[in-house]
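User: I'll paste a sequence; please echo it back and then give the predicted structure.

Assistant: Echoing your sequence first, then the prediction.
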Amino acid sequence: MKVLVTGGAGYIGSHAVKALREAGHEPVVVDNLSRGHRQAVPQGVPFFDLDVRRSDEVAGVMTEQRVRCVMHFAAFASVGESVAEPLLYYDNNAAGTLSLIRACAASGVERFVFSSTCATYGEPEQMPIGESAPQRPVNAYGWSKLFSERMLFDHARSRPGFGFAVLRYFNVAGAAKDGSLGEDHRPETHLVPVILQAALGARDKLTVFGEDYPTPDGTCIRDYVHVEDLVDAHVAVMQALAADDRRVYNLGIGRGYSVREIIEAARHVVGRPFAVETGPRRAGDPPALYADPTLIHTELGWTARVTDVVEIIESAWRWCLAHPNGYL
Protein backbone atom coordinates (compact mmCIF):
# COMPACT_ATOMS: atom_id res chain seq x y z
CA MET A 1 0.00 0.00 0.00
CA LYS A 2 1.21 3.54 -0.75
CA VAL A 3 1.25 5.47 2.54
CA LEU A 4 1.87 9.21 2.92
CA VAL A 5 3.94 9.74 6.08
CA THR A 6 3.86 13.36 7.21
CA GLY A 7 6.77 14.24 9.45
CA GLY A 8 8.56 11.18 8.07
CA ALA A 9 11.97 12.78 8.64
CA GLY A 10 11.25 13.19 12.36
CA TYR A 11 11.85 10.84 15.26
CA ILE A 12 8.67 8.74 15.24
CA GLY A 13 7.88 9.30 11.56
CA SER A 14 11.25 7.96 10.41
CA HIS A 15 10.78 4.82 12.49
CA ALA A 16 7.30 4.45 10.94
CA VAL A 17 8.82 4.66 7.44
CA LYS A 18 11.18 1.83 8.39
CA ALA A 19 8.36 -0.30 9.82
CA LEU A 20 6.17 0.27 6.77
CA ARG A 21 8.93 -0.84 4.40
CA GLU A 22 9.61 -3.94 6.48
CA ALA A 23 5.89 -4.78 6.32
CA GLY A 24 5.90 -4.55 2.51
CA HIS A 25 4.26 -1.13 2.15
CA GLU A 26 5.51 1.86 0.14
CA PRO A 27 5.95 5.02 2.24
CA VAL A 28 6.00 8.49 0.71
CA VAL A 29 7.43 11.19 2.98
CA VAL A 30 6.26 14.78 3.33
CA ASP A 31 8.31 16.89 5.76
CA ASN A 32 9.28 20.57 5.79
CA LEU A 33 12.48 19.70 7.72
CA SER A 34 11.79 22.41 10.31
CA ARG A 35 12.47 19.78 12.99
CA GLY A 36 13.24 16.64 11.00
CA HIS A 37 16.40 15.34 9.34
CA ARG A 38 16.70 14.45 5.67
CA GLN A 39 19.31 11.83 6.63
CA ALA A 40 16.62 9.90 8.52
CA VAL A 41 14.74 9.14 5.28
CA PRO A 42 16.21 6.16 3.41
CA GLN A 43 17.40 6.46 -0.17
CA GLY A 44 14.70 5.32 -2.57
CA VAL A 45 11.79 6.57 -0.47
CA PRO A 46 9.97 9.41 -2.30
CA PHE A 47 10.56 12.60 -0.33
CA PHE A 48 8.81 15.97 -0.64
CA ASP A 49 10.12 19.02 1.21
CA LEU A 50 6.67 20.40 1.88
CA ASP A 51 4.61 21.89 4.70
CA VAL A 52 1.33 20.05 5.32
CA ARG A 53 -0.42 23.42 5.51
CA ARG A 54 0.08 23.76 1.75
CA SER A 55 -3.04 21.74 1.14
CA ASP A 56 -3.23 21.90 -2.67
CA GLU A 57 0.38 20.82 -3.08
CA VAL A 58 -0.02 17.96 -0.61
CA ALA A 59 -3.16 16.84 -2.48
CA GLY A 60 -1.10 16.88 -5.67
CA VAL A 61 1.51 14.61 -4.09
CA MET A 62 -1.22 12.23 -2.92
CA THR A 63 -2.69 12.03 -6.42
CA GLU A 64 0.64 11.74 -8.20
CA GLN A 65 1.92 9.04 -5.84
CA ARG A 66 -1.42 7.18 -5.72
CA VAL A 67 -1.51 7.33 -1.94
CA ARG A 68 -4.18 5.23 -0.22
CA CYS A 69 -3.55 6.05 3.44
CA VAL A 70 -2.06 8.88 5.51
CA MET A 71 -0.01 8.51 8.68
CA HIS A 72 0.10 11.99 10.19
CA PHE A 73 3.07 12.66 12.49
CA ALA A 74 3.95 16.23 11.45
CA ALA A 75 3.52 18.31 14.62
CA PHE A 76 5.33 20.24 17.31
CA ALA A 77 5.39 18.28 20.56
CA SER A 78 6.97 20.23 23.41
CA VAL A 79 4.60 20.91 26.30
CA GLY A 80 6.69 23.79 27.63
CA GLU A 81 6.95 25.45 24.24
CA SER A 82 3.20 25.10 23.75
CA VAL A 83 2.59 26.98 27.01
CA ALA A 84 4.99 29.76 25.99
CA GLU A 85 3.85 29.92 22.35
CA PRO A 86 0.30 28.50 22.13
CA LEU A 87 -0.56 30.09 18.76
CA LEU A 88 2.45 28.34 17.20
CA TYR A 89 0.90 25.03 18.21
CA TYR A 90 -2.60 25.84 17.01
CA ASP A 91 -1.19 27.00 13.68
CA ASN A 92 1.22 24.14 13.09
CA ASN A 93 -0.65 21.25 14.69
CA ALA A 94 -4.37 21.99 14.44
CA ALA A 95 -4.28 24.02 11.21
CA GLY A 96 -1.84 21.49 9.75
CA THR A 97 -4.29 18.65 10.41
CA LEU A 98 -7.15 20.66 8.91
CA SER A 99 -5.13 21.26 5.76
CA LEU A 100 -4.19 17.60 5.52
CA ILE A 101 -7.80 16.44 5.87
CA ARG A 102 -8.73 18.85 3.06
CA ALA A 103 -5.98 17.34 0.92
CA CYS A 104 -7.37 13.87 1.61
CA ALA A 105 -10.84 14.99 0.54
CA ALA A 106 -9.48 16.56 -2.64
CA SER A 107 -7.43 13.51 -3.63
CA GLY A 108 -9.84 10.79 -2.54
CA VAL A 109 -7.70 9.35 0.29
CA GLU A 110 -10.03 7.70 2.78
CA ARG A 111 -7.75 6.09 5.38
CA PHE A 112 -6.06 8.21 8.06
CA VAL A 113 -3.93 7.23 11.07
CA PHE A 114 -3.41 10.14 13.44
CA SER A 115 -0.59 10.65 15.92
CA SER A 116 -2.35 12.01 19.02
CA THR A 117 -1.28 12.17 22.65
CA CYS A 118 -2.14 11.37 26.23
CA ALA A 119 -1.87 15.14 26.80
CA THR A 120 -5.50 15.33 25.64
CA TYR A 121 -6.47 13.75 28.99
CA GLY A 122 -4.98 16.61 31.02
CA GLU A 123 -4.76 15.57 34.67
CA PRO A 124 -6.86 12.39 34.92
CA GLU A 125 -8.47 11.44 38.19
CA GLN A 126 -7.79 7.72 37.77
CA MET A 127 -4.87 5.58 36.62
CA PRO A 128 -4.30 3.77 34.36
CA ILE A 129 -5.97 5.88 31.69
CA GLY A 130 -8.53 4.26 29.40
CA GLU A 131 -9.75 5.66 26.10
CA SER A 132 -13.05 6.77 27.64
CA ALA A 133 -11.38 9.01 30.26
CA PRO A 134 -12.47 12.66 30.08
CA GLN A 135 -10.33 14.79 27.79
CA ARG A 136 -9.42 18.03 29.56
CA PRO A 137 -6.03 19.25 28.28
CA VAL A 138 -3.95 21.55 30.48
CA ASN A 139 -1.65 22.88 27.75
CA ALA A 140 -1.88 24.08 24.17
CA TYR A 141 -0.12 20.97 22.86
CA GLY A 142 -2.91 18.78 24.24
CA TRP A 143 -5.59 21.12 22.95
CA SER A 144 -4.05 21.26 19.46
CA LYS A 145 -4.20 17.47 19.28
CA LEU A 146 -7.72 17.30 20.71
CA PHE A 147 -8.94 19.83 18.13
CA SER A 148 -7.36 17.63 15.46
CA GLU A 149 -9.19 14.58 16.79
CA ARG A 150 -12.46 16.51 16.68
CA MET A 151 -11.87 17.46 13.04
CA LEU A 152 -11.40 13.81 12.11
CA PHE A 153 -14.63 12.75 13.83
CA ASP A 154 -16.60 15.58 12.24
CA HIS A 155 -15.11 15.02 8.78
CA ALA A 156 -15.89 11.30 8.96
CA ARG A 157 -19.54 12.02 9.74
CA SER A 158 -19.78 14.10 6.58
CA ARG A 159 -17.77 11.71 4.40
CA PRO A 160 -19.16 8.16 4.16
CA GLY A 161 -16.37 5.65 3.63
CA PHE A 162 -13.69 7.67 5.44
CA GLY A 163 -12.00 5.52 8.08
CA PHE A 164 -9.56 6.81 10.66
CA ALA A 165 -7.69 5.89 13.82
CA VAL A 166 -6.57 8.13 16.66
CA LEU A 167 -3.53 6.80 18.54
CA ARG A 168 -2.90 8.51 21.85
CA TYR A 169 0.74 8.06 22.80
CA PHE A 170 2.32 8.19 26.16
CA ASN A 171 6.10 8.88 26.38
CA VAL A 172 7.98 7.51 23.37
CA ALA A 173 11.64 6.62 23.86
CA GLY A 174 14.46 4.46 22.55
CA ALA A 175 15.98 3.97 19.12
CA ALA A 176 15.94 1.40 16.31
CA LYS A 177 17.51 -1.81 17.58
CA ASP A 178 19.63 -2.12 14.43
CA GLY A 179 21.17 1.29 15.13
CA SER A 180 19.89 2.90 11.93
CA LEU A 181 17.65 5.55 13.52
CA GLY A 182 17.52 7.55 16.73
CA GLU A 183 16.15 10.62 18.46
CA ASP A 184 17.59 14.02 17.53
CA HIS A 185 15.54 17.09 18.47
CA ARG A 186 17.00 20.60 18.46
CA PRO A 187 16.70 21.70 21.18
CA GLU A 188 16.17 18.38 22.94
CA THR A 189 13.43 18.35 25.58
CA HIS A 190 12.62 14.64 26.02
CA LEU A 191 13.89 13.13 29.25
CA VAL A 192 15.82 10.08 28.03
CA PRO A 193 17.92 11.82 25.35
CA VAL A 194 18.51 14.79 27.67
CA ILE A 195 19.91 12.41 30.29
CA LEU A 196 22.11 10.74 27.68
CA GLN A 197 23.38 14.11 26.45
CA ALA A 198 24.43 14.88 30.02
CA ALA A 199 26.18 11.51 30.22
CA LEU A 200 28.00 12.25 26.94
CA GLY A 201 29.09 15.67 28.18
CA ALA A 202 27.01 17.43 25.53
CA ARG A 203 25.27 19.39 28.31
CA ASP A 204 26.50 20.39 31.75
CA LYS A 205 23.71 18.85 33.75
CA LEU A 206 20.22 17.42 33.82
CA THR A 207 17.47 19.49 35.43
CA VAL A 208 14.61 17.71 37.19
CA PHE A 209 11.59 19.97 36.87
CA GLY A 210 9.86 19.66 40.22
CA GLU A 211 10.29 17.28 43.15
CA ASP A 212 7.09 18.17 45.00
CA TYR A 213 4.47 16.38 42.92
CA PRO A 214 1.95 14.10 44.69
CA THR A 215 3.87 10.96 43.64
CA PRO A 216 5.94 8.48 45.71
CA ASP A 217 9.27 10.25 45.08
CA GLY A 218 7.90 13.69 44.23
CA THR A 219 8.77 13.57 40.53
CA CYS A 220 6.45 13.14 37.54
CA ILE A 221 5.43 9.64 36.49
CA ARG A 222 5.12 8.67 32.83
CA ASP A 223 4.52 5.55 30.72
CA TYR A 224 7.52 4.92 28.43
CA VAL A 225 6.90 2.94 25.22
CA HIS A 226 9.68 1.90 22.86
CA VAL A 227 9.48 3.70 19.52
CA GLU A 228 9.62 0.48 17.50
CA ASP A 229 6.70 -0.99 19.47
CA LEU A 230 4.81 2.24 18.88
CA VAL A 231 5.24 2.25 15.10
CA ASP A 232 4.43 -1.45 14.89
CA ALA A 233 1.07 -0.51 16.42
CA HIS A 234 0.58 2.07 13.66
CA VAL A 235 1.16 -0.53 10.96
CA ALA A 236 -1.20 -2.99 12.66
CA VAL A 237 -3.92 -0.36 12.98
CA MET A 238 -3.50 0.79 9.38
CA GLN A 239 -3.78 -2.76 8.06
CA ALA A 240 -6.98 -3.30 10.06
CA LEU A 241 -8.56 0.03 9.13
CA ALA A 242 -11.78 -0.30 7.13
CA ALA A 243 -14.30 2.07 5.60
CA ASP A 244 -16.17 4.14 8.21
CA ASP A 245 -13.93 2.96 11.06
CA ARG A 246 -13.49 5.30 14.00
CA ARG A 247 -10.82 3.67 16.12
CA VAL A 248 -9.23 5.20 19.23
CA TYR A 249 -6.39 3.50 21.08
CA ASN A 250 -3.98 4.33 23.88
CA LEU A 251 -0.39 3.25 23.20
CA GLY A 252 1.77 2.54 26.22
CA ILE A 253 3.14 -0.29 28.34
CA GLY A 254 0.56 0.06 31.10
CA ARG A 255 2.78 1.21 33.95
CA GLY A 256 4.57 4.39 34.94
CA TYR A 257 8.16 5.27 35.82
CA SER A 258 9.08 8.39 37.76
CA VAL A 259 11.73 10.81 36.56
CA ARG A 260 13.97 9.59 39.39
CA GLU A 261 13.49 5.97 38.31
CA ILE A 262 14.46 6.87 34.74
CA ILE A 263 17.58 8.66 35.99
CA GLU A 264 18.64 5.64 38.06
CA ALA A 265 18.01 3.27 35.13
CA ALA A 266 20.11 5.53 32.92
CA ARG A 267 22.95 5.55 35.48
CA HIS A 268 22.93 1.75 35.29
CA VAL A 269 23.06 1.78 31.49
CA VAL A 270 25.71 4.45 30.88
CA GLY A 271 28.04 3.55 33.73
CA ARG A 272 29.40 7.06 34.08
CA PRO A 273 28.51 10.04 36.29
CA PHE A 274 26.42 13.02 35.23
CA ALA A 275 25.22 16.04 37.15
CA VAL A 276 21.58 16.40 38.22
CA GLU A 277 19.95 19.52 39.66
CA THR A 278 16.42 20.31 40.80
CA GLY A 279 14.47 23.11 39.16
CA PRO A 280 10.94 24.48 39.47
CA ARG A 281 7.94 22.70 37.99
CA ARG A 282 7.20 23.31 34.32
CA ALA A 283 3.80 24.75 33.52
CA GLY A 284 1.46 22.21 31.96
CA ASP A 285 3.07 19.05 33.41
CA PRO A 286 0.52 16.68 35.04
CA PRO A 287 1.87 14.63 37.99
CA ALA A 288 1.21 11.20 36.47
CA LEU A 289 0.15 9.70 33.16
CA TYR A 290 0.16 6.02 32.26
CA ALA A 291 -1.94 3.97 29.90
CA ASP A 292 -4.44 1.19 29.99
CA PRO A 293 -3.52 -0.44 26.63
CA THR A 294 -6.09 -3.24 26.94
CA LEU A 295 -8.30 -2.14 24.05
CA ILE A 296 -5.72 -2.34 21.26
CA HIS A 297 -4.53 -5.69 22.62
CA THR A 298 -8.08 -7.05 22.67
CA GLU A 299 -8.99 -5.81 19.20
CA LEU A 300 -5.70 -6.15 17.30
CA GLY A 301 -3.44 -8.29 19.47
CA TRP A 302 -0.84 -5.53 19.88
CA THR A 303 1.14 -5.30 23.07
CA ALA A 304 4.46 -3.64 23.79
CA ARG A 305 7.30 -6.15 23.60
CA VAL A 306 9.80 -3.92 25.44
CA THR A 307 8.53 -3.13 28.93
CA ASP A 308 11.84 -2.80 30.79
CA VAL A 309 12.93 0.83 30.77
CA VAL A 310 16.58 -0.27 30.96
CA GLU A 311 16.21 -1.98 27.59
CA ILE A 312 14.60 1.14 26.14
CA ILE A 313 17.44 3.33 27.40
CA GLU A 314 20.07 0.87 26.19
CA SER A 315 18.80 1.17 22.61
CA ALA A 316 18.93 4.97 22.83
CA TRP A 317 22.41 4.90 24.38
CA ARG A 318 23.81 2.70 21.58
CA TRP A 319 22.57 5.22 19.01
CA CYS A 320 23.94 8.16 20.98
CA LEU A 321 27.38 6.58 21.25
CA ALA A 322 27.44 5.97 17.50
CA HIS A 323 25.98 9.42 16.71
CA PRO A 324 27.19 11.83 19.43
CA ASN A 325 26.21 14.79 17.25
CA GLY A 326 22.92 13.30 16.13
CA TYR A 327 22.35 13.27 12.39
CA LEU A 328 24.99 15.96 11.75
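The first helix runs from residue 11 to 22. The two ends are 32 Å apart (CA to CA).
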